Amino acid sequence: QLALLGAALRQQDLAAVDRAASDLRAALAAAVGHFAAAARRGGVPPPLRRRLAMAGGQVAAQREALARATASLDRAIDVLMPTTPAAAGLYSAQGGNERSTTAGSLLA
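The chain above was modelled as a monomer; its predicted structure follows.
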């Protein structure tokens, strides 16, 4: 499920990311049950521990990739929509991100 999520993220397929994330949540819920059962039987076997460690590494790598993508997107937004005083008026009908103090009414 982690591999499918990674592939969907690389392809930037939002529907596939949503499906993969949902499937991953279900798989993790099932895994928690298996780990709880293994713990009751005397501990988690080494192969299962290795799989958990590998999954943890994959999750960390995906988290890092998402953080880099988010930072890149933030930089692109900053270039396209700078927060300088001259660009502060990008968000309203009057050209400002704050309500005009001279207008007598608001239109919805």
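Confidence is low (pLDDT under 50) at residues 98-108.
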